[in-house]
Amino acid sequence: MSRNMSMISIAAGAALWGIIGLFVTFLYDYGFTPVQVVAVRVSSAALLLLIYTYFNGKKDLRINWKDSHYFIGTGIISIVFFNLCLFIAMEETSIAVAVTLLYTAPAFVTIFSRFLFGELFTGNKILALAITLIGCSLVVGLIPFSGFDLSLYGVLAGLGSGFFYALYSIFATYALRKYSSVTVTVYTFVFASIAILPFAGLGDIKSTFTLPAVWLNIGGIGLFSTTLAFLLYTKGLEKIESSRASIIATIEPVAATLLSFFVFREILTLWQLTGFILVVTAVILVQKRPRSSFSKRKAS
């Protein structure tokens, strides 16, 4: 896969994450709690990935169990805790504030990548990061001077969601040095499922699992917004720096805003349209690498 195709892969994965609200909304209507939605999301994805991998390359199911710490990182520390923190932030503040705080993730990744991988703070990265944060704030409706009365607990949870979201890129980068993107994604969700299913209380809502619509939405959240999304995103990490990948993935809130407009008929405000343009601009900007950096990499 070329570098450009890797960027497209990351953007496509992020767009699929952006439509998750479609399935989550319906599951909430059927009485699911946030923890239960996380549980069905990761467990359905784990099952789909295991089936896919079994029939398309059993070698990708082989791991050294001494490497479990990679998947504890991607699956439990990142995926489980990022989702839980995000849902807490939504409850304590608002969806707009929670999603904006989630997209502090590129800042965390850029800092981590500097010290862990030696990635430089280039001018493009810093500018794209600043534009992205401003654009995301506008897209989700966090307009300056709007008078939010924020809960400290909610703000900390929101920052936690950004922190744990960022860690997926970091842990996956290490895991990809030994395993394929398919292997990393499969065991991320296997480990996440093992961690959360015992505490989800799915038995309390067992009657809802007799409804075809529930299974349709579980399939949607498991296949499109999780399995395909993470396969595409993790595949892209093979050729793209984790800090750049994290910024490209901020196309997710743009996708979520477009979904709300076309599916739920929510009108885009001028602020949201401005944010949309800023995020797209940042995605284009982050693709440009300094000439000297490129030459140095090519020579090495």
Task: Explain how this protein is built.
The protein has 300 residues and is mainly alpha-helical. It has helices at 3-18, 20-29, 34-56, 68-92, 95-102, 105-116, 123-139, 152-175, 181-200, 212-236, 242-248, 251-262, 270-286, 291-299. The two termini are 20 Å apart. Residues 292-300 have low confidence and may be disordered. Residues 7-140, 153-286 form the EamA domain. Keywords: Cell membrane, Membrane, Transmembrane, Transmembrane helix. It is found in: Cell membrane. InterPro entries: AA-Vitamin_Transporters, EamA_dom, EmrE-like. It comes from Salimicrobium album.
Key attributes of the depicted protein:
75% helix; 300 residues; mainly alpha; single chain; globular; 0% strand
Helix content bin: over 70%
The biggest sheet amounts to: none
Q: Average pLDDT across residues?
A: 81
Decide which structural class fits the backbone: mainly alpha
Number of strand segments: 0
Proportion of strand residues: under 5%
Order of helices and strands: HHHHHHHHHHHHHH
Q: How far is the N terminus from the C terminus?
A: 20 Å
Shape: globular
Q: Radius of gyration from the CA trace?
A: 19 Å
Number of helices: 14
Uncertain runs are 292-300
Subcellular location: Cell membrane
Pfam families: EamA
Keywords: Cell membrane, Membrane, Transmembrane, Transmembrane helix
Protein name: Threonine/homoserine efflux transporter RhtA
